User: Fold these one by one.
Assistant:
Number 1:
Amino acid sequence: MKNKTKLYSLKLFLILMPIVLFTIVSCGNNDGQDPSKFSGTKKNDVANDISAFELENGFGPVKQKIELGPIDPKLVKQGQTIFETKCAACHKLDEKYVGPAQRDVIKRRTPEYILNFMLNPEENYQKHPEAKKMLAQYLTQMPNQNISIDEAKAVLDYFRKVAEEK
Ligand code: HEC
């Protein structure tokens, strides 16, 4: 009788053990997926799964192509002031400094990428291959400058203008 109980417990253990292990393992997997579920805004932002639009234009509030009108001199002026107060500590137009020279940034990147990067550097460092590459090269993360989208657009017109000047 005693032996039978022992055998029964052993069988029960052998049956239950794989179930317990499986539950632990699958819980672990779920944990791994949670951050991407909550941090992202798009369905396909699981690591390395990045859409063609995101690859070209980065991650941020700009989610479709924008129409660029003619360069607006008023915006250029506003953008220049913002650049000189909030960006020039790390960026110059023609020389590499803490960050890359910015006169030709509009030739290197799409306008949408520039806006998204200015407004949302953190997410791009996490997800965008180009931003990761830059970080590996410059070894400094650009802090979020907390500018508004209108201010970012003014800086963009400033970048468009200075690119024309050379
Ligand atoms: C504390 C330093 C710092 C400040 C301030 C700063 N940046 Fe940057 N920025 C960097 C660094 C460093 C990089 C590139 C390396 C990297 O991404 O780690 C960079 C990259 C960029 C890029 C991407 C360039 C490319 O070729 O991909 C843009 C656009 C940019 N900055 C715009 C701005 C603007 C606009 C401002 C001001 C509103 C600003 N930055 C303020 C340090 C700074």
Number 2:
Amino acid sequence: MFQFQKKKLLAGAGLCFILLVGVAATTVKDKGPKPNLKVLPKDISHEELEKIMKGFNVSLGVKCNHCHAPAKTDPKKLDFASDEKPEKTTARHMIRMTAKINKKYFNQSGGEDVAAITCITCHNGKVHPESKITLPPPPNR
Ligand code: HEC
Ligand code: HEC
């Protein structure tokens, strides 16, 4: 399960979090049970979840509403449990992928050590990571 990855994801997210303090206005306000966690541990603490989510914001350069749909009752609020937005589903795949890369290729599957890669490794503050290389122009001689 995802458990093994938790600490490392947190460490990565924690780093982002340090950069973020005082910047993000939105927080995880609802401290109740989180009914719709399918990848992260169901017993995750409020603080841990908040760190991870803020880490996602920084890593992708987005706000919470990139992945979370507006609430039906009050569109000014977000319905965090809703799976309506495809970006949320993609993010679940991404969490699993990142955990798998760390485990399989960096042998990071347990302990307190920092994950070899996190969301920001690829995303670097952008929704769509770079995949094409633009070569510099040849030097003038
Ligand atoms: C890149 C996409 C993404 C961003 C950005 C994001 N989240 Fe999430 N969030 C998710 C995913 C995916 C889950 C479900 C994780 C799972 O299934 O284990 C989730 C779950 C949650 C939950 C638990 C919902 C429940 O009841 O099951 C809360 C609360 C939450 N996010 C708050 C936030 C807040 C607050 C922000 C902004 C600071 C934020 N999220 C930004 C992807 C995102
Ligand atoms: C190994 C590189 C890599 C890592 C690590 C990675 N991603 Fe991605 N991610 C991608 C690529 C490539 C795409 C596709 C971008 C595109 O469609 O242009 C993508 C797409 C996404 C999208 C959909 C973007 C959209 O269109 O809104 C989300 C959401 C996302 N990633 C979230 C995450 C989260 C959250 C993490 C960390 C748990 C993560 N990613 C880690 C490479 C990565």
Number 3:
Amino acid sequence: MNETAPRSRPWIGWLLFGAAGVGVFLLGMLASSVNDRRAESVPARLQFMQPIADYEADNAKWGQSFPREYNSWESTKHLDENTKHGGSGDRDYLAENPNLVVMWAGYPFANDFKQARGHYHAVEDVTKTGRLNEKTPGTCWTCKSPDVPRLMAAKGVAEFYAAKFHDFDKEVVNPIGCADCHDNKTMALRISRPALKEAFQRMGKDIAKASHQEMRSLVCAQCHVEYYFKGKKEKYLTFPWDNGLNVENMEAYYEKSGHVDWTHAVSGAKMIKMQHPDYEVYSHGIHAYRGVSCADCHMPYKSEGGIKFTDHQIRSPLYSVQNSCQVCHRWGEDEIKNRVQAIQDKNKELLTRAEKAITAAHLEIGDAMKRGATDAQLEGVRKSISKAQMDWDYVAANNGMGFHAPQECARILGKAIDGAQETRIQVAMIRAQLGAPEPLTLPDVGTKEKAQAFIKPFVAAQKAAEKAKEEAEKARAATKPAKVVQR
Ligand code: HEC
Ligand code: HEC
Ligand code: HEC
Ligand code: HEC
């Protein structure tokens, strides 16, 4: 009889069905209220926010209302141990790679080039670098401090750039912080630097229309980009993006503008130093293609006491693989790190090949000069080595050792190696015409010290020639008969 019992009470089924329906309805109500609260969460934060003055550069003042973001931001002062190719510890690129000294002969980078550290050290590090001199313009402060927007507002943007770096020694004191990326009233992400807005305008784009996800990369693109100082006196910070963001676009831009950063002290080639085109290289990678932003990897969400917030300890994501990568990738932590390193090792191998070939080409051109090659004879090889080095530098100067866009980096390094070896063939022919025995025995530039000692006489000769030229011009101006009006 037991078997028939359930059948005799069909209302239980209906009751369960009804109860389940009510349950689903209540859960729905709860979910929607959670969603509402999440949407409210930013304004709710703002309700308790202490007012922050316009152009407030003191990060601690912002921190009063946002302790978690502030504390994690402050942690960028910690110097973690290096990862294989990155990190924020000490890394002297010139000692690791003495060829760079020869490649930059005549340019301040040959004196000093260290690995970047956390944002907290930006002001300290720029004042300590061996690349500063009395001619360094105000422009060099632009990507170091939230005091910069304040000074630009007070003095004018063009005036700020055209001033001298040391004019602002006492004014620029706060390292990269809140005001660089946030609006002081709404805490929304904002672009505080004019150069990025201007670059967008020249490309016919309106940065105000960028999506929220795009802004999570564009705040970084204010500084992590290739740039140059336009105008001998103006030193106006400019991104060479008019034709687009790839290396060919930039080379075409520079060729048209005629801009040159320095003349190579050994080979006499007119050179351009790429800075750190992180945003540009990233734009060519799979993550940008899939809409993953810089902040997704470098500023992941983190939980503390049940409160979710954005981790402001911006650094190598290899220290935070769980939060930075495993939200999307279901691979183990070691596997993720190994995959990153495998990409980076290959990039490093290609970089080294390019560096060897480019260094040899500069030295061989220098030898041809010693044997009496004329500027006209060397014009072609100087141009091609300059281009090969620009290609190499677009990859070398970008951070992440190729990870942000592995295939694009490999393509460009392929071009750089090809360009350098092609140059060497041309130089070999010029040298042969001048009766040089082949091949040239390259000097030993195997350590930073040896390389710096090797370039020293070349740099001194270049400086002396420049000085002589200046003096000859002065003398000419002095002996020129003053405009004597004789009637
Ligand atoms: C998919 C994740 C991801 C995205 C997106 C991403 N990065 Fe990275 N980034 C990495 C990894 C991984 C490294 C290598 C870290 C290492 O070698 O220790 C790195 C390295 C760096 C470094 C050097 C850090 C160091 O310690 O050597 C900088 C600077 C950097 N990225 C800036 C950016 C910027 C700016 C953007 C956006 C334009 C960006 N990254 C987008 C994952 C990412
Ligand atoms: C380099 C840029 C950058 C700097 C510097 C920076 N932030 Fe942020 N901040 C971000 C980004 C990106 C987000 C994520 C915003 C989003 O997706 O809406 C964020 C989010 C926030 C939020 C929203 C809540 C959260 O945790 O997601 C607060 C509040 C905040 N930051 C406070 C600060 C404070 C305080 C400072 C200075 C101590 C600071 N930020 C410095 C880029 C920055
Ligand atoms: C106002 C300019 C500026 C902005 C905005 C900025 N950076 Fe930086 N960033 C720098 C400078 C300058 C350094 C090098 C600091 C040093 O070495 O003292 C740096 C260093 C770094 C490093 C290396 C840190 C380390 O410990 O190795 C990473 C990673 C990085 N930035 C990522 C980002 C990301 C991601 C964003 C956007 C969310 C961003 N930065 C926004 C200027 C900026
Ligand atoms: C927001 C999601 C997201 C995050 C965060 C993310 N990735 Fe990815 N990653 C992707 C997507 C999407 C792809 C492309 C996969 C595809 O389309 O097949 C990808 C591809 C990759 C690839 C393959 C690249 C290639 O060229 O074949 C590697 C390696 C990788 N990610 C590593 C990382 C690492 C390391 C991190 C953390 C530092 C990270 N990802 C963070 C979404 C993400």
